[in-house]
Every structure is written in structure tokens, then in C-alpha cells.
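Notebook p. 47: complex prediction with fe (ii) ion.
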Amino acid sequence: MIDLLVRGARIIGSPDPAPVDLHVDRGVLLEIAPASSEPAPARTIIEAHGALLSAPYVEPHIHLDTALTAGEPRWNESGTLWEGIACWSERKALLSRADVIDRAEEILRWQVANGVLFVRSHVDVTDPTLQALDALLEVRDRVREVLELQLVAFPQEGICSFADGETLMNEAARRGIDVVGAIPHFEDTREDGVRSIEIAVDIAVRHGLMVDAHCDEIDDEQSRFIEVLATQALRTGLRDRVTASHATAMGSYNPAYSYKLQRILRRSGINLICNPLVNLHLGGRFDGYPKRRGLLQLKEMLGAGVNVAFGHDDIMDPWYPLGTGNPVQVAHVGAHATQMTAPSEVEECFRMVTDRAAAALGLGERYGIAPGRPANFMLLPAASPFDAIRRQVAPSHVISRGNLVAVCPPSPTTLYWPGRSVEPIDWVRSRDAAAACWRGQGDVAH
Ligand code: FE2
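Predicted complex, C-alpha cells below:
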């Protein structure tokens, strides 16, 4: 008797479209077998009815310590990054450990319900008490059974331009962060920005950590710290353990410099994180018309062989008042914002919230659908990744370490149209006739 049997699922990306059964025991995916009319005995059986089975979503960039603070103590009326930092500086003075833990765990529950089982969160360490960091270190332990949380020491107000910034970064590393952050474009001078990257990389090397810097998040074509970060990644050997987040200045780089930059980034092996929801909102605020999009050059970077993932960034905080922690919404908006709308490009957008994000987080064999790996996956009642993004399909089932942690059956709107029989409204149905996966809502039997 095994713990869990998933019957009749179609594995995403598999060359064989035939449904399969998945055998799970003690948190591990034991076997992927042809769908059988005589199922293996199991304590829990999920009938997938041909739904897509995917590795879970990965959230590569979020700020759990600031989430759910929008309007406290005041709203960011200008919608700029800079007023957001000023609002947060005021809210930061009101933090308590319980406040951070409550808000962070609320967002993590939203994310798991959306199919996210791996999260990288930045946490502001420009606070002499490091209260938010200590709170999120506790949260990381409390949620460990359900999801993996990586914490980035993020110097929101600078490393060189904030009093004792470097000391606080070193202390954060000593307390047990996973990743070292930076914010070079916010430092007072170009030289401070370069120095801040050197400090962050040095801390990572000394402690065996990864690096994820907020890098060039500004509509200034002169902001070119990404070349410094990539060069450091190459010269220290950290390579793909380094990530540049946001990189929105790239949206203003001229073609000659972009060409040079593609070569530097490809050689370095670093990852990029594009945050379309938040940077469409914050970007171009100082522009007249034409107004820039404020996003990195996604197609060019993918074309150059650079790994790029989509992140959510903020949720209801001083920098972004909206958000539900849903990666498929991020992929949907990202596809529009970066014009990744050819069928293969939409499918690539799905990879940017799954496989590519997993690579950025260095998950290795802790991620993916294969025998012997942890049984983390979700069922999507969709014909394809394209279909999942078009209809922004919620996962019907989320399984973490072999345990069912979320069930969300589709709830179609019934349409009463004169002259037609009563029917579910059409756009919620898959248009992919090959899959007939409208039935794929799945049943659970215990
Ligand atoms: Fe961010």
C-alpha cells in the first residue's frame, strides 16, 4: 500500500501524450507507470482525468517582509520606487516580529494555494535590529514541511550609503541567510554601487552563499551595474549562483551596448529575474510620451542563452498595491509586456515561472518530475502550458512532499443566453480539442 496514487495524468513536456499513473510513497515519487485499469493500492487516490501534471510553480522574487502593508502609514501617491522606499522607511519603524510573521505566512498560504512550493524572498536588512530578518528566519523553519523558502539579505537603503550597512550584511550572513543581496543603483555614487557589489560577492564567497542583487531598477540608461555583477560572477566562479533582479534600465540600453552586454551575461552564466507586474507599475513614472515599459530586454536575453525567470516582486505594499501571489498571472502579464506571444513564446513564459525559476534558485534535483525526486507537483486542468496561461488556470491539486496541500476545483460560470441551452460560459473551456481536459478537474478519494 503506497501513500498516494495519481491516476491518468499527462506529464507536461513529455514526448508521450498518453496518460500515466504516478506512485508516491513517503514523500517521494517512486514510479511513473502507464495508466492502468487496475490501480495500485493506495491510501489516497487522485483521479486526474487527463489533467496536466507539472512541477510546481517557483517564485524567484518576492518581498515577504513588506507584503500587505500598502497604505501604512500612508499610500505611495506618486507610484514611484523612490516614494515607495520613503513610505517603507516609515512603516519599518512600526515593525514587530509577530507583524512580519503574520503577513509573511499569509502570503505563503496564498502562494501554496496557487501552486507555489519554492519561494525566494528578499528581506530588508537596513534596520539595526534586523527584526524582519529574525522573523523570516523563524518563518523559514515553520513552513519547511510544506515549501522551501530562501531568504535574501536585501539592503533596501544601501550597503555603502546606509550607516553600518556592511556590518548589517555580515551579521545577516552570520544569522543564516541563503542569498546575499545588493542595490547598487540606489547607492549615492557610481563608485559606491560598484563597491556594494564587491562587498556582496565577497560575503557570498566567504559564507558559501548565492547572490541576488536588485540591479539597475531605474529608467536610466546610464545605470550599468549588471556588467559589474556579471563580471564578478565570472571572476569569482560563482557564475549561475548569481542573479540580477529587475534590471529595468536594460529596457533603455542602446542596441550596440546590448549586444556587448549579451556576451558578458552569457559568459558569466548569471540569471535574470524580470518582474512585469511591479515594474510596469513603477516604470516610466518620470517619462512623458512615449512612455517606457521599464522591463529588461527579455527576448534578446533568452536569444543570447541567458536564463531569465518571471517574479511577482511585491504584493500589496508601498511599491505595488495589487497582487495575489499567482505566478500564472505574472506569466500572463509578462507575455504581453514583453511581446512573448507566439505559441512557443507563451510556452516559454510558463517555463519562466517553473523550470527557469527553479534554475535561478539552484534547486537542482530537488525540483522536477522524475522517479526518486521529492513528490512536489500540481495538476492543471488545461490542455497545455499555453492554454493554462491564456485562461490563467488555477491548479486543481497541489501536492507537496507527497501530501495534498491544496484543492481548487474549477467553478465555471453558467450562462443563460436566450435561444441557447444552459451552458458553462465558453472562454473558461479549453480550446485544445486534443486534450478534452474540461473534465480534468480531478477527484480525490481517501
Ligand atoms: Fe524586488
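Notes: Residues 61, 63, 122, 214, 245, 313 surround fe (ii) ion (CB under 6 Å). The mean pLDDT is 94.
Next step: compare against the earlier run before touching the bench.
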